[in-house]
Amino acid sequence: MNLCLMRCTHILGTTYSFSNPYSIPTDRPLIIVPNHQSMHDISPISWFMRKNHPKFVSKIELGRGIPSVSYNLRHGGSALIDRNDSKQALREIAKLGKYINEHNRSAVIFPEGTRSRDGHPKKFQPTGLKLLLKNAPTALLVPISINNSWKMMKYGKFPYGLGNHITFQVHQPIENNGDFDELISDVEEKVISGIHNT
User: Fold this and answer.
1) Which of 69-75's residues contact partners 24+ apart within 8 Å by CB, and which partners?
2) Taking residues 129-146, what's their average pLDDT?
3) Where does the Phospholipid/glycerol acyltransferase domain lie (predicted)?
4) If you ran DSSP here, which 8-state letter would residue 3 be given?
5) Which of 50, 111, 117, 132 has the most CB atoms at less than 10 Å from its CB?
C-alpha cells in the first residue's frame, strides 16, 4: 500500500531518495525519530524501513476518514493519541513502547508535535519520546532528516506541488544510555543538522 501511495505521486514528478548508510538491525526494537513536514513523510518511512515493521504515534483524527490509511493506523498497532486528552495520549504511547520492546518492532514519533509548513524545524516536545525510551529501554534510536515533503502541500491539500525531490537521511543510530535529556538533545541535533530549507 505504501509503495502504491508513493508511486501515485510520480505522476506529479515527485521522486524519493532514502539514504541509509548504516546497518540498521531488524532483530531489536527501534525508536525512529524524524522531523515532520507533511503526510508524505509517512509512506516512504513505512516502505523503506518495512523490515523493521514501523508503527506510528499519530493523532487520533487520522484513524478515520482516509481510505486504507485510517484502517492501517487503527488495526496495524500504531498509537492513536487524542491531543486534548493527555492521559489517553500518554497511555497509548506507553503501550506502544512496551509492544515494540517485547516484539522487536519499531515506533515512529515526530517530536515536533505537528508538521512544519515551510520546512523549518520546530522545537522538539520531549514528553512522548521520553515515554517511549522509558517503556522500550532496549530500543535503538534512529534519527532521520526529511527534506522537501512540505513542498507537496505548500498550497494546502490542493493543488499538490510539482517536481519535488523528497529526501530522507538516516543518521548514526544511538544507544539508549538512560539519560533521556541528553539522548533527546543529541537526536534533535542530528535531525536538524540534515534539514536543508531549500
Assistant:
1) 72/1
2) 97
3) 30-149
4) H
5) 132
Taking the C-alpha atoms of residue 124 and residue 102, their distance in angstroms, rounded to an integer, is 27
Three-state secondary structure call for residue 131? helix
Given a contact cutoff of 8 angstroms between Cβ atoms, the answer to whether 95 and 132 are in contact is no
* Ordered alpha helix ranges (H), the chain: 2-9, 42-48, 69-75, 86-103, 127-135, 180-193
CA-only gyration radius of the chain, Å: 16
Taking residues 150-174, report their average pLDDT.
Answer: 89
Q: Quote the CA–CA distance of 12 and 4 in Å, as a whole number.
A: 14
Task: Give the other-Cβ count within 10 Å of 35's Cβ.
Answer: 27
Q: Tell me what the mean pLDDT of segment 50-75 comes to.
A: 85
Rounded Cα distance, 76 and 179, in Å: 30
Q: Which domains does the chain have, with CATH numbers?
A: 2-193 (3.40.1130.10)
Cα three-residue angle 3-111-28, rounded to 5 degrees: 60
pLDDT in the model for residue 159: 80
Give the confidence band of 6 by pLDDT, cuts at 50, 70, 90.
confident
Question: Which whole number is the average pLDDT over 98-106?
Answer: 96
Are 52 and 105 spatial neighbours (Cβ–Cβ below 8 Å)?
yes
- Beta-bridged to residue 147, according to DSSP, are 167
What is the torsion angle, in degrees rounded to the nearest 10, for the CA atoms of residue 36, residue 26, residue 190 and residue 57? 30
The pLDDT of residue 198 is 53
